Amino acid sequence: MEPLYQYAWLIPVLPLLGALIVGFGLIAFSETTSKLRRPSAIFIMALMAIAMGHSLSLFWSQVQGHAPYTQMIEWAAAGNLHIAMGYVIDPLAALMLVIVTTVAFLVMLYSDGYMAHDAGYVRFFAYLSLFGSSMLGLVVSPNLVQVYIFWELVGMCSYLLIGFWYDRKSAAEAAQKAFVTNRVGDFGLLLGMVGLFWATGTFDFGGMGDRLTELVNTGLLSPSLAAILAILVFLGPVAKSAQFPLHVWLPDAMEGPTPISALIHAATMVAAGVFLIARMFPVFEQLPQVMTIIAWTGAFTAFMGATIAITQNDIKKSLAYSTISQLGYMVMGMGVGAYSAGLFHLMTHAYFKAMLFLGSGSVIHGMEGVVGHNPDLAQDMRYMGGLRKYMPITGATFLVGCLAISGVPPFAGFWSKDEILGAVFHANPAMWLLTWLTAGLTAFYMFRMYFMTFEGKFRNVPPELREHHDHHAAEPHESPWTMTLPLVVLAIPSTLMGFVGTPFNNLFEAFIHAPGEEMVAEHAVDLTEFLILGGSSVGIGLLGITVASLMYLKGTPSPQAIAKAIQPLYQFSLHKWYFDELYEAVFIKGCRRLARQVLEVDYNVVDGVVNLTGFVTMVTGEGLKYFQNGRAQFYALIVLLAVLGFVIFSVQA
Amino acid sequence: MSTFPWLTTIILFPMVASLAIPFIPDPTGKGRPIRWYALTVGLIDFALMVYAFTNFYDLNTPGMQLWESHDWIPEIGLRWSVGADGLSMPLILLTGFITTLAILAAWPVTLKPRLFYFLMLAMYGGQIAVFAVQDMLVFFLAWELELIPVYLLLAIWGGPKRQYAATKFILYTAGSSLFILVAGLAMAFYGDTISFDMQTLAAKDYAIGFQLLVYAGFLVAYGVKLPIVPLHTWLPDAHGEATAPVHMLLAGILLKMGGYALIRMNVDMLPAAHAKFAPVLVILGVVNIIYAALTSYAQRNLKRKIAYSSISHMGFVLIGIASFTNLGMSGAVLQMVSHGLIGASLFFLVGATYDRTHTLILEEMGGVGQKMKKIFAMFTACSLASLALPGMSGFVAELMVFIGFATSDAYSLPFRVIVVFLAAVGVILTPIYLLSMLREIFYGPENKELVEHEALVDAEPREVFIIACLLVPIIGIGLYPKLLTQIYDATTGQVIARVREVVPTLAQQVDQPLGTLVAPSLNSTSK
Known about the structure:
heterodimer; A: mainly alpha; two-stranded antiparallel sheet; 4% strand; globular; B: mainly alpha; 22 helices; 3% strand; disordered C terminus
């Protein structure tokens, strides 16, 4: 085999090496390493750049039609059971490698500017590199166990990075919430994985699907049991891709630094759920009930996320709900069998959402110069406005992102979202209607965000809330080139990427399609259908934009008046459908109460018995010691009485 | 093969060396030369082990190796027989490794250093003896012998309630070990021949009723040590009062004796009784996992919290032992070694934190991470290892137990589903209590009262070195578990084969249609 494939394992290993070397430096020579800011960052970025170059070559080789490549080594063995690990490079893996390495590289470049004044600059790069390594390991995994391993490792990196500013109480809580919520999903994934292995005897994706079909067809495995196992596996993506009902961690995860929100919590890690559904497609597609559940989970999440995003005032939280909603689209696409459409949206979304998050980071960076480092002030859109004037590059790229996500042609989001909606329309019109409406909401909240942030006049924080530091500037400023350059670079795929997947010449689908599915040679495009469906989604998108511009640009009708008119609905959306309150009351409080009760039982009952035994022994000992008084006659009397007692007892018996 | 008595040397060397401690000059009275002496002895003994095992131990032979047997007191048939197979060899290595590190961890101990290090070295040999001796009576003696140093280490160097904890420990373990003596004697005198040799005992053919009684006796004794809920209440008290090095020995090695003896005696010598008792073990294992995880979550004392988490992790050992599969048994042994390393590291870090904060109550901490960055990082790494993060050894062990039990053909499908489900609930509970703990100690704004009264200095190189030593095997095994599993695979495979063979009911217990699927599909993966 050619070296390009033989050395593909280097792609995840190189960033790991970077993280290990810098991490070792931080522990062993903390003072020196913390001072070597730029060298550490450049070292880590260079490794990521090599990984990126390698990924691009692999991608190109796959596009040229190179056969998939798999390499395995035996990892664990017991008796006649062997578990292997390794890597696979196929079109899906190659695509994910390119997405992860490019976004990671740009985010690293951006972080140099964003984290410039942070004391934990070097640590941040070490974590980023560690994350990059785990994510790259995830996408090349050839079997479910290895996916599970890296799945948890990216979760750990997410935990470390959300809690990056560990002196903030809210960050600590958010980090823990993210990890535990994901563990609930992993619990399902673990059970599903173990169950599927029990049934099929393999962890291999393709083999699992084939064997499962065989078992169900021969009647050895009941279809409902197979469905339960598949749904358990699906719980993993539900948590990782922040789908209802395990979506609650993602908005809180915005406590982490903004580059992290872009890389982990928008572009790559949260999309891992969709990636896993794609990998498990051979299993899922055999089970129609499971596909329906997946589709509806996605559709409902898409709708729910959008309805929450329209009222949030924190720019990052609003984007987080938008991410939840868009991930819902992808999951729904997978659920209706639109394999390549879902992955196409994953790709376009990765780029434009990373750009939007980095843009919001640039905005926050600019705002911090005015209002200080309090996230409650610097991220609140009510205190922004008119920023386009101060930060033109950020404003322009943010607008590109808004157009892309709102589905305005020819921007990337239009093509990918429209392909999903088209597939959903054929599968289930009711689902299409729901998500079509959601597309309108999407356009509305994105432009609400854009208008509140970049248009109108700069509102600034009311004087009574301001921190009293004199050194703050009066006006926001544009960010340094290390931050704006990634924005501009990301704007290119956000604008043009869609053309690889147009219905007229779908290069993307020719490259990535469901395993086992033969490509139908040039299926004719139904132009009328495309115009009707595409037109209707563009129409509702434009409607959303118009409403947003009326409300937030012109001020008529005023948003406050509308909020007042539909107060219960407004509160429902503002409080995120009260999920946090519900979970707090039921799960967190319930778990705490149960734990306390068990501990009380442990103290009072289990240990109580032990101490009681000790106490009784002591008391009887205390009592008996009076019998041991050294008088021989007394002992003789006791012996006599005892013998007498035995005699009487045995005579009677 | 070598004729040199390697194992005897390894056992006796620290004990003999400890006798020289009273004669070491110690001009300052702070024990500096004694520390170095003890550490050197520990290192030499560990090096001897590594040398003996790398040169004279064949990984592919399942039976006893490095075998020595001498008459000791022939009048009562007592023999000094030592040997190592795949089961004892990794635990002997673990003992040498952890005890040496514990001596290094004991650097700050200045109270009665001569006695302290004497006891540590006595423990060293005593612990290895428990894993190496192959004579029932000597095993009992070694088991008892190692209790005395622990009792003294607890009672002299412990926390404020040390007398209570030490007494509880000695009563619990000494009381329960009477069962070993009684059961062992019963086995020795059963049938025509009288012998204390474990291999002879294993080969005897016992009546099932007798087996069950003996099994129950052993189970009580080893259940206290492992510990199994509800025989566990000595452990939080002992751990709550012990100093860090004693902690490391308690969690790292002493708990493993219970698991080791369960496999060595209950499973290997009494397979027919094991088949009857196995479901009980599984249920106890699940109870351990969930019960101890919940108590750990509610516990506000740091040492006790980690102590309960140890109990929780031992539940997987029980389930693995009772799985009747290679993978499950392999996972159980792996979990013992893995927890030995992880438990030792966590308890060491708790000790290091306590040295600085002088409190173990979580409410009195908070924001400690800002001044103690290295301890924060190491504590996080070890906690992640403990919550079975992939890439670290705990994950592999738990995964093997899960898969082993799920594919076991010894239990009905509903039973397996319930057990796997409940054990997996532990997977959710573990991060809840461990991450809450990290959050309450290290995250958030600094606790003003604490910062004003205590000097929160960061870790010194010695502490970083100890944790690094523990993390290397934790991550090494996590990345490539075959490193460890190949050491004992031959032996556990033999134990499982013996159990399955002796239990003819195993095949008949499978009444689920799906159960029949397992064997062929397992074979199909092994090509």
